[in-house]
Give the backbone structure.
Amino acid sequence: MTTVETGVEATTRHVPEGLPTHLQHFIDGELRDSVDGAVFGVLDPVSNQDYATAAAGQAADVDAAVQAAQRSFDSGVWAEKPARARARVLNRIADLVEASDSRLAELETFDTGLPITQALGQAQRAAENFRFFADLIVAQTDDAYKVPGRQINYVNRKPVGVAGLITPWNTPFMLESWKLAPSLASGCSVVLKPAEFTPLSASLWAQIFTEAGLPQGVFNLVNGIGEEAGDALVKHPQTRLISFTGETTTGQLIFRNSATHLKGMSMELGGKSPAVVFADADLEAALDSTLFGVFSLNGERCTAGSRILVQRSIYDEFVERYAARAKNIVVGNPHDPKTEVGALVHPEHYERVLGYVEIGKTEGRLVAGGGRPEGLPVGNYLAPTVFADVPSTARIFQEEIFGPVVAITPFEDEADAIRLANDVKYGLAGYVWTSDLTRGHRVAHAIEAGMVWLNSHNVRDLRSPFGGVKASGLGHEGGYRSLDFYSEQQAVHITLGDVHTARFGAAAAGEIDG
Ligand code: NAD
């Protein structure tokens, strides 16, 4: 570890040993620069200075990656391996990710500004994704339907082909694993386009996959700007699938651009999720969860409970206690294990979030935060910011901020809570806190969201569906649903016994009986 003082002790910058200064594509088993030599700068969010360049992929680089993926797919070297053999490679990948979890977390924290303890948890979750899908493909069964004495139909599952995987900058390595594990488990060959703000941890995949024994050309990575490399991947005629996680507006554009070739699409998009706290809730647990729910991962979390709806009778107490806790949250050097909120990913994003904070000051009552914390004069730091009394018409109630900013709004009764919860275009997640379980289920069912947590914190068994409704996404991943997305399910029909077909054309020849 090298520690570089930036002039202020509190903003000490931790620079990982052996930090690369240039990041390349990984195409057909080799590291490559762009055909035209284009690069872009990559910065860390504590100093906001470039620490590396990355190859900026263009259509020619994406084409080379897709061709390599297609060749490996057509050869059957991976797609036709028995599930058990693929699972062994996936388990080795999991082992390697686990063995390098501290290094991964260190690089991820440096590149994204995520607190180190949370980045470590994400690295371990990435390993778990591979182990989980290894187990799943070995245990997988396919449907067969028998009509006694007449026919049997069965499903012949096959990988779709070349999958384009496009990922965002929040928890990049873990979210990449979320797509890589099921696509590879299914037997697809892939081209990954990581987010341009945070390409560092993705550069580790090449070595991990090679060491684990994934055949050449099955995994390819093209770095680059979304509108260039991402766009080329979406429009390439040979990528049969696009799995995208990112902003809703980007998802809408990708959806349009995929139409020409009618690709399979999985879209995990933005959110503005409600946390509904009834007066009879376990207040302590609800406070812990609603604080963690929006301030963990720097608030750069798709499932963040960024709107807290609180029943009127406990509203004042809740706001007071929530604000007191928010003011106590430790903001600072992301590499310090005591840090709870680190630096936001990029100065452009930081400016956008600060813009919302200023808007919030005109729309609600600021009760905590509201700007740069003291003692952190450089880096993309924002004090956890809490607005109370936010009306549902406010922009900070309606729009995804994707930072450590929360809106609290009172409600009168259950109907009012449901109305407010659903009064946004998004529908990713919802959280309900009440000790009346009948009401808890009723409200959970009424919330327009792909996922609801009832008296529970944002944890998810990997077998359950993940995905949003409304503007938050299209399709559900998780467990077998992910494998279904990356697979064709061909139906094969076989006759048992006599073939009963009307004999067209046989009448003229006098061959039809009766
Ligand atoms: P983004 O949409 O700006 O970028 C996501 C990815 O898309 C990047 O790799 C980017 O380069 C690429 N891209 C951009 N324009 C493209 C284009 N025209 N064609 C193809 N690719 C293009 O999103 P972001 O700012 O990186 O991530 C934050 C967003 O992601 C938030 O809205 C968040 O809610 C969402 N998100 C959703 C989930 C979920 O599971 N629902 C999970 C994490 C993040």
About this structure: The chain has 15 helices and 25 strands. Residues 99 and 109 are 17 Å apart (CA to CA). The longest strand covers residues 151-159.
